Every structure is written in C-alpha cells, then in structure tokens.
C-alpha cells in the first residue's frame, strides 16, 4: 500500500491512498483524516485503507484524482519522533578518517544514532532554506521506517514486527556548523535543520524481495543538478538493520506509533575516490561530505563545494522492474528571506 | 490561565481548563479537544479558554469537576518538539569540573542545547521505569516554555512574543549511560528516557512579577523521599533566558506551535558542598549529579547514590504568596516488568 499527505486541510495535511504506479490518489477522510491518525489506529484502519488501494489499482476508485507529488507534504508533515541512525559504518569511517580520527571498535556493535527534531519537516519538493551558503549545505540520502508502538526493552525481533511504512529521506545537514556543535558535546542541533521525506510512504510488502533482513535491498539514486551522483545499494554495508536500530531506541523508552527511524546516509564501501564516483564506474555517494572526504584523503583538501543557492538534489528509488516506488524528493536550495 | 490534560479520550488525552487554585477543572471539547489542538489555533481559541477560566475561578462553571493531578498526563502527552537547554552554566561547570574539564569561554555566549525525544512523555505522577538501577537514574528539575509558531531566523525579542505556556519538567537522566554515549559524539540518546511535566501548564501572566526578563523568578522546590533537597531560584544564574534559547533553536529551522523548550537543570551558584545543601542553609540542588559532583570535588568520590527503585522525587513551584502554581510532579522509580 502507498500513502501520501496532501498540503491541504491543516497542519497535518490530508491523507490519501496512492495507486501503485503513482498516477492516482484518493482521500480517505472517512477512514483516517491524517497519516498520524491512521498510524494511531493502524490495526483497525489499515485493512480499510488496503481496500481503497486495491480499488485504485484496479481503476475502481470512484473519487480518484491525479496524483501530483508537487502537492505533497512529507507523509508526516510533523512527527512525534525522528531518530536517525548511522548504520552505514563506511560513511562514519570515511567522515572520521578525513579528520584523522579512528573508528572505535564499539561502533561495529553499538549503533550510532542521533535524536532529530520533528516538528517542522519540509515537503519533498520544498526549497531547502538557509540563511547562508557558508553553513555548508549538504544533502544526505537515506531510507527510513515508520513504526507502530514499541514497548521499552523490545528485542530486535519484536521491533521487526512493528515496522509499518518505509520512506526515503533527505536529512539536510549544515556541515560547517557541525564541528563547533559536536565540540560542545551535546550532539547535532543547529547543524540539522528540517528534513524532507519522499512524497509517498509504502508498506514493506511493496518492495517484494527488496525488503528482507530488515534492510532495503535496492539502489538509492541521487542526482545533483541533473547529473547522476550516487546509486549505492541500501541493503549493502548496512551494519545495523532497522530492527536493531529500533531496539536501540527502545532500550530506555517506549516508541509511540508514527515514530520515524532513519538509516543514516547510505554508503557502500568502495575502493577510493577514483573508483567510487559514478563517472568512474562506482556507485557514487549519497552526500557531498563523502566525496569531499575522499578528496581530502587523496588530495589534501576537498574540491567539490557544498550546495549553493539554486543547486538541486533529487533522491529516488526504483524497483527491480524500474518502477518508481516512493516518488522523488527533489529540492532546490534557496536563501532565507528576511 | 491554567490548562491540563486528563488521561482519557485517546493518545493526546482531554484538555481541561483548571481553576487558579487547582481545585476544579472543566473540559472544553467544544473549544479544543486537546492542548495541541488549542496551540495549533491559539490566536483563535485562547480567548474562549480564558472565558472558561474566569468562570471557573468565580465558581460559575456549570460543568466543573474536582481537579485531581493523579488523573493528569503531561500537558502535552506527546509533542512535536522538545529541546532542552543548559542555561544554568553553574550546572554545566560543576558537572564538567567533576571530570576535570574546563568550561569553554564560548559557553557564556553560545547556548548549549540538546534535542530531546518527545513521542512518549510520562505523566506527572507516573513511575520512572528503568530496567536497571545501574543506569544511574537521576532527576533534573527544570522550567520549560511552550511556544507558538516561530519563524526561522527570529530574534530573541521576537521569540519572547511567541511564548504561550510555562511548565515544570523532570528531565530524567540515566547518568551512567552518559559517558559512553557522549564519547560516541552524537549527544544524548539512551541516556535521556521519557521526561515528565507538571500537571498544569500556565500562561506567563499567572506568575505575575515572577515572570520577567524571559525568566521565572521563583524557587523551584525539589523533595527527595520526603526530605527537602533543593529550592534554587529559577531566575538566578540563568545565563540564557527563554527567548535566547528559542532563538538558538530557530537559527536554522522553524518551530511549530506546541514546541517545548526547557531551561536545563536549575542551579544557583553557591560556595561549595557544605554551604550549598539545604541542611546547611544553602538552596540545595535540582539533580543528584550536582551533589555528587560537589562530593567528588571535595572528597574525591561521590557519596550520594543515584535513585533506587522505590525512591520518590517531588518537584513543584509556589507563588510568592505560597500558592501552588503548576501542581507537583511526583514520581517513584520502578523496575521494568518484562
């Protein structure tokens, strides 16, 4: 099943069921007005939503309208929980290597996660607003899951059963604000502005064999200003799977329905700078920081700039048959108007 | 005006207006079913809520019932944003001193804040559940504000106009999980389980002269197992006021209505261990970590244990006339049942 949220009807938007081919959608106010409302009551309403989905896919939905990702907000325009992992250790290792730091051994057994802010996500086609290019604006292409309620102390096996939806994420980062912020000791804050999610959230069965072992085994495709930039497989080199990430969150607290847990920047371990870019036959990158790190390791300093006003990033994932699964995140960087 | 949320009617509970003396309350479903709904539409509904408040205070509310803090959830049982400052630099300095670290000069000009999780707050009389006493269970008594929408880049003066409500907080911390977690570089995560808030949230005018300069100028009273433990004045030694903390959050993102911004552990600068405890004429502490730090500085190691199962903490604030403003947070530590 595929679900989206239109930018109408209030702060949480209006829930629509979207056809598998992303061409049509239908609002389902009689079942659940918003995606959060559906998640709050998932066991009760998901079967009804599936019925609408079946009708849409068979051309029998009477009130279907054309689906336009440009009218979408993030599936959850605001959420109660957004916690992001760094499950692709290669990304962590690379970023640390650039500043001469070793990767602690514990990073292979203890997931690295940060608590994100979730009150004001931006839509999948909204501009990335920043007051200054000097902030070092970067995209981070990721996969995320949305959970049902999870009890404190739940095992990874138990957490696997509580995953309801999958989405793509652009976890925007302000790289030049990170060093000072991390030096303060309390983690990211101003350096992690509002994230954006794919137009559509899908139930795991939509990925078929692409979803197993708690991982999404499909390439995540990133385009920067129209040029292919990355297509690493999200199922490769993911050290911790989603159930393990959720269990990490649940160790000392409950999770409420609608919690979003991110994978961290997707990153496949490759040989080095020259073999890893798409132009050179590699799978490329899901953020600018990685290529800048390769450049720093190999040439002493980064060459690729961070995003400038007007730059555009596109993030999407296709099925094995080449069909668009989530719709594309496509965002342009723009200056804050004062 | 005083508002509370009863544990009935769904995940977000039921909004009630509470009389100034905390004896009676009335549900206001016709105006706003939940506190988040009221905050989403504050300009429109607050005047109507104030009318109910006036009637309650004058004994004219026709459907008033007795107000029982034990039936309350936190005013926002789940929120979209919970960011906590460390505005009392004395607390930060003390905790760092215990581990031999200096306070960076920038800490006096650049607020220290962490992004908290907000999907599953616990009620003001709920147990603090932990799987192990070895986690180093500590309370942290704080003050918090709830904001309206705040635009990205808003000045502190502008932020001051966006404060809608005040609450007390118990920002529970698992001290023994903190060192490893901070060493990983991404800030608190498992070490900050669910927080609890006071039974009642109040509009700033309820504090009279106690609210000025963006600070709450009243003692925050903490009792541990029935013994007075702290009563520092929340208006003293608060290096950054609430408008400054909000502006710090808003530098790179918007805040949505219903965002909760905490002060950090209230802490007044005192002379040292022996002069600072209430028994010795001081104003005491708002967390166990501080007294343990004094003990470490003066005696080489901490003496006071962290909270054990069965221990009880009470946090409240009285007006200058001795009236209970927010109702008391009162929580007992209990083991996780598996």
From TrEMBL, chains A, B:
By what name is this protein known?
Answer: 2-keto-4-pentenoate hydratase
Origin organism is: Aromatoleum diolicum
Residue ranges occupied by any Fumarylacetoacetase N-terminal domain in the UniProt entry: 1-78
Q: Start and end of every Fumarylacetoacetase-like C-terminal domain? A: 82-333
Question: PANTHER family given for it?
Answer: BLL6422 PROTEIN (PTHR43211:SF1), FUMARYLACETOACETATE HYDROLASE (PTHR43211)
Specify the superkingdom: Bacteria
């Amino acid at each position: 099943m595929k679900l989206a949220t239109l930018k109408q009807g209030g702060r949480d938007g209006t829930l629509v069921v979207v056809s598998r081919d992303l061409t049509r959608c239908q609002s389902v106010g009689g079942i659940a007005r918003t995606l959060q409302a559906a998640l709050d009551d998932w066991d009760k309403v998901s079967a009804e939503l599936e019925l609408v989905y079946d009708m849409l896919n068979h051309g029998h939905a009477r009130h279907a309208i054309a689906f336009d990702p440009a009218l979408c907000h993030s599936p959850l325009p605001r959420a109660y929980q957004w916690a992001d992992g760094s499950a692709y250790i290669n990304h962590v290792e690379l970023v640390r290597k650039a500043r001469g730091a070793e990767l602690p051994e514990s990073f292979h057994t203890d997931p690295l996660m940060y608590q994100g802010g979730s009150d004001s996500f931006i839509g999948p086609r909204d501009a990335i607003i920043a007051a200054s290019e000097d902030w070092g604006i970067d995209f981070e292409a990721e996969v995320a899951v949305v959970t049902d309620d999870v009890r404190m102390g739940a095992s990874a096996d138990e957490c696997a059963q509580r995953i309801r939806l999958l989405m793509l994420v652009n976890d925007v980062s302000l790289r030049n604000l990170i060093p000072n912020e991390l030096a303060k000791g309390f983690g990211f804050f101003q350096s992690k502005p509002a994230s954006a999610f794919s137009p559509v959230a899908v139930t795991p069965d939509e990925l078929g064999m692409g979803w197993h072992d708690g991982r999404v085994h499909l390439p995540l495709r990133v385009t920067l200003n129209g040029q292919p930039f990355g297509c690493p497989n999200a199922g490769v080199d993911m050290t911790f799977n989603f159930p393990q990430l959720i269990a990490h969150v649940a160790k000392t607290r409950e999770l409420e329905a609608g919690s979003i847990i991110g994978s961290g920047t997707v990153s496949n371990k490759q040989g080095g700078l020259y073999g890893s870019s798409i132009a050179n036959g590699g799978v490329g990158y899901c953020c600018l920081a990685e290529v800048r790190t390769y450049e720093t390791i190999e040439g002493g300093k980064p060459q690729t700039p961070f995003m400038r006003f007007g730059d555009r990033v596109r993030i999407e994932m296709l099925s094995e048959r080449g069909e668009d699964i989530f719709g594309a995140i496509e965002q342009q960087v723009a200056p804050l108007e004062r």
